[in-house]
Amino acid sequence: MGERQPVQKPVPPTISSMPSQDLKVSTPEDAGWRNLPQANNHALTPRNVLQLQRLYGNRAVQRIFSGRNERINAGFASILHRAGNAVIQRDEVEETLIIFKDSVDNKKYENAMIWSRELLKLNKTHESAIIKAIETAMFDFMHKDFSLAQWCDTVELHTGSKLERPSAEDLEGLSLVEFKSTAELLDMTLQGLFNYSLRQLNWHNSPKIDATTERPKIRALLRFVRMPNILAGCGGMKADDLLDHGLLKDDFTYEPLVLELMQTYCAAVRGTVETVDIQLPAGDAGLALRWGWALQTLQAGMSGSLLKKIMPQEQFAALEDSKFVDDFVSYYQTCHPNLMASDGYEVKSYLAMRGESVDPVSYDSSILKGKVRNYHRFEAKLLEALKIHYGEIDKPDEDRLPLTLILHSGDDHNGGFHRNPNMTDVVTSSKNRTLLIEGVESLDDIKGQIGPLAEHYGKDGKIDQVLFAGHGNTRTIEFGMQIKDVSATAQNDFNLDGEFLDDEDYQYLVLNVGDKITGITNVGEGWAEGTANGKSGLFPADHTDAEIRIKQMDLNQHINLDTNRERSDAVFNEVLAYMATDSTIGARQRIVFNACLTNSNTIYSELIGSPEEQQKEVRERLLDTEHDAYSPSLATYVRNKVGELGAITVLGANGSTMRMKLIDDDGVLQIVLGHDPQVTNPDKLAYVREGYDPQGVIRAVLECWAGIGADEDSESGWKKRREACFHVMSERIKLLNSYKLNEAVIKVIFELTLREPDNGELIRALEVAAFPASEFHRKAEVSLAALQRVGLYPGGRLHNYAAEIFDGISSAVSAEGKLVIHEVWMKIDSGKKGSFIDQLMAFNCQTAAPYLDIDFILGGPAPKLEDLLDDPSNQQQMLLAFRVLDEHSDNAVAKNYLLSIVNKTERKFPDYLNVDDILKGNPPVEKILEWIELGASAAIDEVPRFNIDLDNDGTNDTYVQPLSQSATIQHPALLYL
User: Fold this and answer.
1) Which of 31, 623, 773, 935 has its CA 20 to 30 A from that of 969?
2) Taken in order 565, 566, 567, 569, is the CA torsion positive or negative?
């Protein structure tokens, strides 16, 4: 459906007797030439101009063309003077050919096209072969990928004019009728079909399309294309592919199920619903329908926010291809696993277990129910062994093996503990009877089980070894995960991620079911402030009901020596109460923390004062058990608790640990990490020298800088220890590789520390920054917030060091890491704006979205957006402008930038910029045009490219504005396409 431009007036009766193929000239009712509209002259052909001259004389023509657009044939006036009031005769062919040649020579290619058509009309015999050859060459060039060189060669051959080869810009505006057959239309992509329908508005008049059987089919496809989100998901699919998969019924209405599945799929691609993050559309309609079904199945059984978090497209596609979608949902609803890992690890692990020919649901009816929560996170071999071990209850003491107990967290945000073969080795060791408790909701649940397990399974009723497994830090292990979940729905589920709690600037409100929040203030970004239980803090803004229904992790169930010491102590005391302490079992008595950094030490608060005062503060906090702020590592704390109990070895890690060997051939628990051989060494200088984990290494530097570990407890001893540390650092710098991320982080932090050797607070701050920096090779860990939290941010505590840190690590991080780093870096050093733009080359609008903080880019220090959008031929700058409008559709800078690029007459971006590849349908180009006020309903000043042929002469001679809007017709009306 379309609408004529306002300049098209009713046809005056004075010219109603003209032949039907001639123009019905639009004039005011008095038909006075003075009032002929200049704006309408773009729709006139040479024959139309002659008609005007006959009606109104040459002054009328001069009036019309006095303000003509450059696209209008410059030869019109000349031909009128030559023709006089007579109809053009055969002897004028030569003069017309001269005008055609002149148009070509002056690179007025649309004029040449018009005049070549006029030549065909004027001369049916004289030199018709020559003229036809010229016309054919031009048509082939425009519509059949006829090369520019071939076209120019043909014109030169038949006209004798030497041509300067035109550029692509010179050819803009050419508009011949493009009638296509049904087969040609169905062979187009949906995006191509949509574009064609705008370019040739009267496509339905094509003699190659049957009005009864084919035209309704094409119309139905175009209606489908105009539905929300469809082009985002189906724009690249062939039209006949949709038909082959049953989109239309015999009466050309839509098959309801096919339409529903396609809409579900396309909404996921466009991102208009919270669900699986599909960044690359399906390649064909069959796959899209399968994905639509899988999405509906998943969304019916799981919340959209959960799907978005745990299921990247790669894992979604693998799950759908495996045919286990229904089973996965059933597992979630039956066994209630704590699905939380990013990067798709939950799905990977589930499919890996199915690859072992095991359905994890089967364990829920076994002896493991209540003992293991997340079955899919373990190898089937481990679970089968565990079933046997739990089944051998109350055996005679002489038949019992030493008992090893694994207390395993159910909290795993990054998949670090999924299907760990080293954990399988512990459970299947023939030297021990190993039991595992995983996924408990509270520390009290652990404490209540330790005694009975020792009694029923332990040799002499004792536990020989205990392995704590979970994500950890200096004084904590993420362990209990009590879920408060009363009538939770997909609309208000909320998982409080641990990373939010690391934010020093905010206190998050801990809510219990039934709590009432008062004093609510919306602070934006989906958060609100309020007070509950006498405490104020942040909470998700949509949870303002009188009865709060929130699914959250209760942090009071973590082992934490700072915030939850009483409950943590209760667990440790219970473990120690049932541990074997005599020497008859040998060296087995061990407590091992399979958790990151539990043998490292850190100082959480700022160090102030002189270097000597800062060093003393570090020593007191880490060594002086009588000091109020004494805060040893978890491993040290438990060693202190062991005290006089006996020869119990306690092992923790100096750094982050992944996939380490946990048991030796004799069944003794250990921590062995091949790439980090000093990971358990109590001598922190050794970890400075060889440590792998940057955060652990810098913590070791701080200890050595304070003199901890010195041979003698004196000023001279502390000084020697510090000097030895600096020497080790200086030597190690020479060996570090800046293209390996861990080494790059250590190298740049060593360099900064050695430059300011008396600045203990700098060492402490760099240690905090080391973790996110060393994780920027993992997409799931990359974010602007991660840098902000540690002070690598304009105005942050490491502002003055950020540029050097970024420079030191940027060669080793992922593409996503590079983008976010440069996003911040350019706000610290505006000279990096070009590098920031360059990073966008690796992305499209959809893949860049999670890593571009548009509000940050628009705000803060220079460069401003106008400084970043200064090159209309730069695809990366266009991507940034698109992303800005996707979040702030009224942003004037982005709009003006894109308006400087877009072809306003054709409402399209230049082909050479490949806008579809930049956008990937998110957002669709039609939405961009709407935001920059060039949408289908927008009025434009420039003369648009003609898209309809009203006089059936083969040349589009009028522009009709397409409309793609839904409406309800309340009164009969005559509608024109």
Assistant:
1) 935
2) positive
